[in-house]
């Protein structure tokens, strides 16, 4: 196929200038067509889609990755449409395409923007083979509720981590230049507040005070705009009474007005028509009116815009300038992507699926994402020379599809290397690996193989128990109220434990699980999330000590669901709990009279601390922090203070540590979190090596939206910690003066 000649010629090469020239030629109907994204899931374009393309009624298609179909759709649009406008071809490329990286929450556990950038890059290259030029990622909703199924798609609970990893993912997808082959447009989603859905029920409502919106939920989106993200997607959820898709405060006032976003906003799937179901509007026409006036430029997979925008403009309820602005930014993106010059895709111009580079990226990401939660008596790493046999038990040891996680429409399970396969390749010649699946899947409650599992455990030197959740238990619309190990897994742990051998749990899951039932029943826990295509080799490398674990938790692990929300950057409150002022239910006398037990913020029936704190993650070596200090005890607004510490590797192996900087602003015009992550860095140290780790902290890094609604630093006292988790002890202090 030859690339067609652009039908509108201008001398200026700038995308926005070319877009403006094209816009001037368009009818209102053609403009509204650009604002519609149509589902194209099924095979060759059925006639209705072909006709709509010819009539200029479609700006984008979603969910077709058959390159022949995609090229044909582009051909109809550019060769048979009056103005020859190519299509944006959208697809959810969330954590890989054919080659799958760890779920985003796992990628967050790497605390490594480089790893995230490279993962997105190889995903963009693979997706480009199918003509995909637009992805709906990254999801940068701050997520503090592990019941929410979409926590898997997030970078967890921290603002800074989400800002930096979201930015890295955008850079990976979009490349240096959107016009380069292999670059695809990214989408920051879901604006805004989706991660705060009540009780973690997907699609539920959210109520977030403005200071919290601005200090927490908005921040990653502002960072994404600064990083040049092409598009923003609205959230399905209701935000303080106005669903995000009809919310002009967030879309017009904040996103465009305050942050200067000049890309375009797409609704979520049919979320414009859902404004009626929310109870914001009476019918689809009013929904189109609310969404367009709120600043939604393109409708995903609905027909409110195509059916009603024209009459709304003709009646004067929607201004032509609203339509023109939307279409201008949609066309500008198409020009920026180079689609007018190259609407067609030659798959052979891109690396094949599962290339060496893609598999290496997936393996590196998986390796750094796994978190060693506990390791009693240094039971890990395993020494193959000291073992004769290993029991490999559990439904997720050899489950090619399940290790990929949620949102993997295009993932190729044939590429997956499972832990069992990888261990067979690595140590199968030396160690007898005895595998018992034990459960049909992670939810099974009828498990005739438990006796066999316990028997094999008793006969082997140690047990590797592969537990967790199948893919389908997390992701969109897959929230859980009980986030313990599903099915009869706790019973399996007990049965295997009773065999008396060292038990190492490797947990594959889409969320932080509550592990209180099993944490004391096993000697070690490697938390592997859903690790993707190369999860197996990465886990094998860690189990056998080829590399030391270096992942750190991007989200707090509660002991019980009842503790949620529990996150590291909570407020102190007026009655903070401490080990001296909490009471346990078992300590209360029978018939005790009414008292305000402990007088602090805790639950009677569990500890006030989480099971594992944010930032936690052990290593096979011992890292020691010392000498936490500041370059200056007082700095002026606008200056920088350097916070540093010495990090020593006191063990006998080379390993990597994610060094974390936290601060606390002691007094504010609004109360401030007890700790906020302000920096992090991966450091690799040889045994015996010590290095000074420095973080330069500008006073701008300490800004927040205070009582007056202004974003600024408030002078006063600050504490700072450098440590290997938020449970930091070594503290220093500085002041900011006017
Ligand atoms: C609905 C999801 O909420 C969104 O994240 C996704 O991009 C779209 N569907 C398209 O699949």
Descriptive labels:
Rossmann fold, 738 residues
Short précis:
With 738 residues, the protein is an alpha/beta fold. Residues 92, 136, 189, 268-269, 476 line the site of 1-deoxynojirimycin.
Polypeptide structure, described:
The longest helix is centred in the middle third of the chain and has 17 residues, at 320-336. The N and C termini lie far apart (66 Å). Among the domains are: 1-85 and 317-336, no CATH class; 365-543, Rossmann fold (3-Layer(aba) Sandwich); 567-609, no CATH class; 623-737, Immunoglobulin-like (Sandwich). The model is unreliable at 1-5 (pLDDT under 50). The protein is built from 19 helices and 26 strands. It has 738 residues and is of the alpha/beta class. Helix 18 (489-497) links the parallel strand 14 (462-468) and strand 15. It has a 6-stranded mixed beta sheet, with helices on both faces. The protein has a 5-stranded parallel beta sheet with strand order 4-3-2-1-10. The chain has a 5-stranded mixed beta sheet with strand order 18-26-25-20-21. Helix 6 (113-128) packs antiparallel against helix 15 (356-369) and helix 15 (356-369) crosses helix 19. The radius of gyration is 27 Å and the shape is globular. 27% of the residues lie in helices and 18% in strands.
């Amino acid at each position: 196929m030859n690339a067609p000649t652009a039908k509108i010629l201008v001398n200026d090469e700038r995308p926005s200038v070319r877009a403006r020239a094209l816009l001037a030629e368009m009818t209102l109907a053609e403009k509204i067509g650009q604002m519609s994204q149509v589902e194209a899931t099924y095979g060759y374009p059925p006639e209705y889609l072909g006709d709509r393309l010819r009539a200029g009624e479609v700006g984008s298609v979603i969910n077709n990755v058959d390159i022949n179909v995609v090229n044909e759709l582009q051909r109809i649009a550019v060769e048979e449409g009056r103005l020859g406008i190519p299509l944006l071809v959208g697809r959810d490329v969330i954590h890989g395409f054919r080659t799958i990286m760890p779920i985003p929450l796992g990628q967050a556990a790497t605390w490594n923007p480089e790893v995230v950038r490279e993962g997105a890059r190889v995903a963009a290259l693979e997706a480009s083979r199918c003509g995909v030029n637009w992805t709906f990622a990254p999801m940068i909703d701050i997520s503090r509720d592990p019941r929410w199924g979409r926590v898997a798609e997030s970078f967890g609970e921290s603002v800074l981590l989400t800002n930096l990893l979201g930015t890295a993912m955008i850079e990976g997808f979009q490349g240096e230049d959107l016009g380069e082959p292999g670059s695809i447009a990214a989408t920051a989603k879901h604006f805004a507040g989706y991660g705060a859905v009540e009780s973690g029920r997907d699609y539920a409502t959210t109520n977030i005070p403005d200071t919290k919106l601005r200090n927490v939920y908005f921040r990653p989106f502002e960072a994404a705009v600064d990083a040049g993200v092409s598009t923003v997607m609205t959230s399905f959820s209701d935000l303080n009474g106005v669903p995000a898709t009809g919310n002009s405060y967030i879309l017009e006032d904040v996103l465009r007005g305050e942050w200067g976003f000049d890309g375009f906003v797409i609704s979520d799937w049919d979320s414009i028509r859902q404004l009626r179901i929310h109870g914001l509007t009476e019918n689809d026409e009013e929904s189109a009116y609310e969404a367009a006036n709120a600043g939604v430029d393109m409708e995903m997979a609905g027909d409110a815009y195509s059916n009603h925008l024209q009459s709304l403009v003709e009646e004067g309820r929607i201004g032509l300038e609203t339509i023109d602005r939307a279409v201008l930014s949609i066309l500008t993106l198409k020009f920026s992507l180079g689609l007018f010059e190259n609407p067609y895709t030659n798959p052979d111009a891109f690396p094949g699926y599962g290339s060496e580079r893609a598999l290496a990226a997936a393996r590196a990401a998986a390796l750094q994402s796994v978190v060693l939660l506990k390791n009693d008596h240094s039971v890990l790493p395993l020494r193959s020379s000291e073992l004769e046999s290993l029991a490999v038990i559990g439904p997720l040891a050899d489950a090619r599809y399940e290790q990929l996680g949620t949102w993997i429409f295009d993932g190729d399970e044939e590429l997956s290397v499972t832990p069992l396969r990888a261990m067979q390749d690595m140590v199968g010649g030396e160690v007898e690996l005895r595998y018992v699946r034990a459960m049909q899947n992670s939810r099974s409650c009828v498990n005739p193989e438990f006796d066999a599992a316990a028997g094999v455990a008793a006969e082997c030197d140690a047990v590797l128990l592969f537990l967790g959740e199948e893919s389908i238990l997390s992701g969109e619309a897959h929230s859980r109220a009980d986030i313990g190990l599903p099915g009869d897994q706790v019973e399996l742990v007990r049965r295997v434990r009773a065999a008396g051998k060292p038990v190492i749990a490797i947990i594959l899951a889409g969320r932080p699980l509550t592990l209180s039932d099993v944490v004391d029943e096993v000697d070690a826990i490697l938390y592997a999330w859903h690790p993707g295509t190369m999860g197996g080799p990465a886990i094998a490398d860690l189990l056998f000590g080829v590399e030391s674990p270096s992942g750190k938790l991007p989200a707090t692990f509660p002991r019980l669901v009842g503790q949620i929300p529990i996150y590291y950057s909570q407020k102190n409150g007026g009655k903070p709990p401490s080990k001296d002022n909490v009471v346990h239910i078992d300590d209360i006398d029978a018939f005790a009279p009414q008292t305000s037990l402990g007088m602090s913020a805790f639950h009677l029936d569990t500890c006030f601390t989480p099971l594992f704190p944010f930032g936690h993650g052990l290593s096979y070596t011992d890292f020691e922090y010392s000498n936490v200090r500041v370059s200056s005890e007082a700095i002026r607004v606008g200056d920088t203070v350097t916070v540093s510490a010495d990090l020593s590797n006191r063990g006998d192996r080379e390993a990597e540590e994610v060094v974390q900087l936290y601060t606390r602003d002691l007094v504010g015009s609004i109360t401030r979190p007890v700790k906020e992550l302000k920096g992090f860095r991966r450091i690799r140290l040889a045994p015996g090596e010590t290095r000074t780790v420095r973080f330069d902290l500008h006073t701008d890094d300490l800004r927040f939206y205070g009582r007056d609604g202004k974003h600024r630093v408030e002078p006063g006292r600050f504490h700072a910690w450098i440590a290997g988790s938020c449970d930091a002890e070594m503290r220093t202090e500085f002041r900011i003066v006017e």
